[in-house]
Design a protein that fits this description.
431 residues, mainly alpha, 14 helices, three-stranded antiparallel sheet
């Protein structure tokens, strides 16, 4: 055999084809041919090295696939025995999709901690509960959103539950003034209640003590007569006060010790005057909840808490003007607003309990639309996981987790893909 090489390029320094000592031309294998002589003496050229190189790369790729093939076979044989060849060859990806759905919200189940049978049972229960929840919740969300004038569909279930709880609280709390529809006005009212609350509460306690024995006409008793009656030597003033108090008492006689009663009435009158000085402040921020010294601040606190909870739950979907109109119309006393909220609390609470009972950990972190999509995906993928479980049970496989089952189904499908790839490569080589 002879090797023919192409002529060397001329030396770029002196124009000759010989390089200076110490320099060599780089090898050029693209035009190197193996030459054989035929029996008649003619030359036969073999393919060039440029065409041989891709063939070597294909062989290396085939060898790598073969090594992967052998490793997958060893893994399957170690767990399933020779029965691994009978495992379905088209369930791996679908079973992996089912496991991925179970591993994300709303269930967040760990397939490594569950055997396939119990997990399949719980998954089927969760799919049925999810579909029921979507059917119940979707319509009620639309009704409540229409009443509140807000698009509630994009809200996660947890935020929907908070919103419905606020609506139910508002139906039980005193009706808030319309001005509280604006969150800024609500915050100012909270500041006012904190600042004047102690004074108003003290006045309210004194007034309740007074009204337990006297009618509202007691405030017509002159302060001077009350002050004189507290002095020891003013016997005539005491007699006059006793007669006066008997006319305004609920029993028709002056109750208790006269000095103590007069002192209480004086203190109550002073507290009444201090609250009267705040009348415009209280009326402007508490609206119809302002009753002067008899303002029930516990009711005010309940109303403020319910309104604040509603505003926080609505977030950027809050329309202050719409909320003012709802407060003015006392809409949170009406069935068409409260009933959808009650239904949603019941449905979402039942879904949360079902997920928790079946080992899930994130039942309320999805929207209604996400929950419907999740249930559809899982329902479509569960049959593949169940078929793989039945097929694996027919082999000599030992106990495994749901995650291990999916791994074996994926390996089996991978082997089938490798077989198809190898067969296709063989057909291309033959052609």
């Amino acid at each position: 055999m002879q090797v023919l090489r192409p002529a060397r390029p001329p030396n770029c320094l002196n124009g000759s084809s010989t390089l200076p000592r110490g320099l060599q031309h780089p090898p050029d294998r693209s035009d190197v041919h193996a030459v054989h002589r035929s029996p008649d003496g003619s030359l036969l050229h073999a393919p060039s090295l440029a065409s041989v190189t891709p063939i070597a790369a294909e062989r290396r790729h085939a060898n790598r696939l073969a090594r992967l093939d052998e490793r997958a076979v060893r893994l399957l044989s170690a767990h399933c025995g020779p029965g691994w060849v009978d495992l379905p060859t088209d369930l791996g990806r679908t079973a992996a999709a089912a496991m991925a759905a179970l591993g994300e919200a709303p269930t967040d189940l760990d397939g490594r901690a569950w055997a396939p049978g119990p997990l399949l049972h719980r998954a089927s229960l969760l799919v049925a509960a999810a579909h029921t929840t979507v059917d119940l919740v979707a319509e009620e969300v639309d009704l409540l959103g229409e009443g509140l004038g807000a698009d509630l569909a994009p809200l996660p279930l947890r935020r929907l539950l908070d919103l419905c709880g606020a609506v139910v609280d508002l139906s039980r709390a005193p009706s808030p003034p319309a001005v509280w529809g604006d969150p800024d006005s609500t915050r100012v009212a909270e500041v006012v209640v904190r600042s004047v609350g102690p004074e108003v509460r003290a006045a309210g306690q004194l007034h309740r003590r007074v009204y337990a024995d006297f009618t509202d006409a007691v405030w017509d008793v002159p302060d001077g007569l009350l002050q004189r009656a507290t002095q020891r030597r003013r016997l005539l003033s005491r007699l006059r006060l006793r007669r006066r108090l008997a006319t305004v008492s609920r029993s028709g006689r002056a109750p208790g010790r006269l000095v103590e009663v007069a002192t209480t009435l004086l203190e109550a009158g002073q507290a009444r005057a201090r609250v009267a000085a705040m009348a415009s402040l209280l009326a402007g921020h508490l609206g119809h909840l302002d009753r002067g010294p008899m303002t029930d601040l516990d009711e005010v606190d309940d109303a403020l808490a319910a309104v604040g909870r509603l505003q926080r739950a609505l977030g950027d979907r809050l329309d202050p003007l719409r909320l003012r109109d709802l407060f003015r119309a006392e809409a949170f006393r009406r069935r068409e607003v409260v009933l959808p909220a009650v239904q949603l609390v019941t449905a979402i609470g039942a879904w949360e309990r079902e997920v928790t009972a079946n080992g899930g950990r994130a039942p309320l972190e999805v929207t209604v639309g996400d929950l419907a999509h999740w249930a559809d995906r899982l329902q479509a993928a569960l049959p593949a996981l169940a078929a793989g479980h039945r097929a694996l049970a027919a082999t000599e496989a030992g106990p495994t987790s749901a995650h291990g089952l999916v791994d074996q189904l994926v390996l089996r499908e991978h082997l089938e893909d490798l077989a198809r790839t190898t067969a296709a490569d063989g057909r291309r080589s033959v052609s």
